[in-house]
Design goal:
Length: about 250
């Protein structure tokens, strides 16, 4: 039997990269997928790739906008009558520059999307589950980055946002355990997605020399861990940080 048969899952950043790969694996494992992205077209393109297209819902959501996130919960309730019990925060952006040259706008944009956006989704959908009687439980999976741990140069905004996501996740794991809602955080390494398309070849070569497996990761390799954390196979995994880096740290 598929591991996630009938489960309702929400994935942000679902229009691309890791979010899209997670949606694809979720649908293979029998889940109903809410594919949320800032770009509705891309969310629809993701749903078009899934099994049983009509089971799923593409949704335009800007995670930085708490009101917009609240509205998305209403739309989900209207369509499915229940909130998702699995929530994956994969929406994220980079705006790289050296600290001395970074604009306030770029610093704030990254914190706002990666950290505040994760907060907005967690609080809205966490409340929806915690307020049910009895709570159905759940699994929240947040995507931070190994960049936060190693403090990549040129990414002070991104690194700070991702360390924040890790702390937010661990606090939620402690606060929400009583509702049987598990919260875990992934630290991917260098994964081949549109996010890293702008990284110059020279920089990629330099990074890959430090990766023991000598290659970039695939979005599907992150999706496998996401699906494990969403499933009951990980029922005692809570508050964990999982590095998926090919050994790079
Ligand atoms: P991606 O291909 O760029 O996908 C991210 C998606 O999130 C894009 O569709 C993006 O839209 C969307 N998004 C951006 N802002 C949003 C908002 N305010 N509301 C809703 N959606 C929004 O990136 P990815 O590589 O899959 O990254 C997914 C997550 O993994 C991110 O949190 C990233 O930081 C993390 N990560 C990635 C890597 C890597 O090497 N790829 C490594 C470590 C961690 P736009 O394209 O319009 O911005």
């Amino acid at each position: 039997m598929p591991a996630l048969l009938g489960k309702l899952v929400l994935v942000t950043g679902a229009g691309s990269g890791i979010g899209r790969a997670a949606c694809q694996l979720f649908s293979k494992e029998g889940a109903k997928v809410i594919a949320a992205d800032i770009d509705l077209n891309r969310a629809q393109n993701t749903v078009a790739l899934l099994n049983d297209i009509d089971e799923h819902l593409p949704l335009q959501v800007d995670v930085t906008n708490l009101q917009n996130v609240g509205l998305s919960l209403k739309k989900i309730m209207k369509r499915f009558s229940n909130p998702p019990t699995v929530v994956v925060n994969s929406a994220g952006i980079t705006r790289d520059n050296f600290l001395l040259k970074m604009s306030e706008e770029d610093f704030n944009a990254v914190i706002n999307t990666n950290l505040n956006g994760t907060f907005n989704i967690m609080q809205t959908f966490g409340n929806a589950l915690a307020n049910m009687d009895p709570s159905p439980g759940g699994s929240f999976i947040n995507i931070a980055s190994i960049a936060g741990k190693i403090a990549n140069i040129g990414q002070s905004n991104y690194n700070a946002s991702k360390v924040g996501v890790e702390a937010l996740t661990k606090t939620a794991a402690k606060e929400w355990g009583k509702f049987n809602i598990r919260c875990n955080v992934l630290l991917p390494g260098f994964i081949r997605t549109p996010m890293v398309e702008t990284v110059p070849d020279k920089v990629i070569e330099g990074i890959l020399r430090q990766v023991p497996l000598r290659r970039m990761g695939k979005p599907s390799e992150i999706a496998e861990v996401i699906v494990f954390l969403a499933s009951d196979k990980s029922s005692y995994v809570n508050g964990a940080t999982i590095e998926i880096t090919g050994g790079f740290f």
